[in-house]
Amino acid sequence: MPDITVQSNASDLLFDLPMPLTQAFGLEGLAIGNDQATVRMPYTPAYTNSRGEVHGGAFSTLLDCTLASACRAHDPARYGVLTVDLTVHFLATARTAVIATATCERRGGSLSFACGQVHDEDGKLLALATGTFKLVERKPADSSGQG
Fold first, then answer.
1. Which of 8-17, 119-128, 138-147 shows the lowest per-residue confidence on average (mean pLDDT)?
2. In this structure, are residues 80 and 136 in contact, taking their beta carbons and an 8 Å threshold?
3. Domain coordinates of the chain in residue numbers?
4. 123: left (phi over 0), alpha (psi -120 to 50) or beta
5. Which of 18, 37, 97, 111 has its CA 20 to 30 A from that of 9?
6. What's the CA gap between 100 and 39, in Å, rounded?
7. Closest C-alpha among 64, 33, 82, 41 to residue 130
8. How confident is the model at residue 14 (pLDDT cuts 50, 70, 90)?
9. DSSP track, the chain
10. What average pLDDT does the chain have?
11. Nearest CA to 88 among 138, 48, 125?
12. 31: burial class by Cβ within 10 Å (0-12, 13-18, 19+)?
C-alpha cells in the first residue's frame, strides 16, 4: 500500500498535476494515497449564492476534483482523469471553508468508481457524491521543448 502524501497548496497544482481550476477555487490537496484523497476549499464570497452560502456548483467542483484524485491515488503523477459521471446530493449549507474526502471503491480496466463527502470545519455533513472516472495515462514531457 502506498503511503499517504500530504501536499500544501501550490498555485495551480493538485497533487502534483497542473490544474488551473485548482488556483481559481483555492483548492488545497491535503492528502492522497491508499485509494483516498482529501481536498480543502476555502470560503470565498465569489463562490457563494445570493444568501452568502457556498454555492452548489462550488461543492460540485470540489467533489469532482476530490473523487478524481482518489481514483488516481494509486499513482498520482502517472494518471490524469476524465469525469464520466458525477452525482451530487446537497444536504446542508455552509459559510466556512469545507473539506472533501473521497475513496476509490473500484478501479477496473478502463473505469474507476468513487464516492465522497463534504464537511464543514465543524464536521457537519454538507454533501455526498458518487462518480465514474476514466484514468488516462499521462505522457512524459518532451525535454526538447517541442511538444
1. 138-147
2. yes
3. 13-137
4. left
5. 111
6. 5
7. 64
8. confident
9. -PPPB----BTTEETTEE-HHHHHHT-EEEEEETTEEEEEE---GGGB-TTSSBPHHHHHHHHHHHHHHHHTTTSTTTEEEEEEEEEEEE----SS-EEEEEEEEEE-SSEEEEEEEEEETT--EEEEEEEEEEEEEPPPPPTTS--
10. 88
11. 125
12. middle
**Residue with C-alpha cell 482529501?**
38
Tally the residues of the chain: 147
Residue with the larger pLDDT of the pair 140 and 111: 111
CB proximity list for 50: less than 8 A, separation 6 or greater:
none
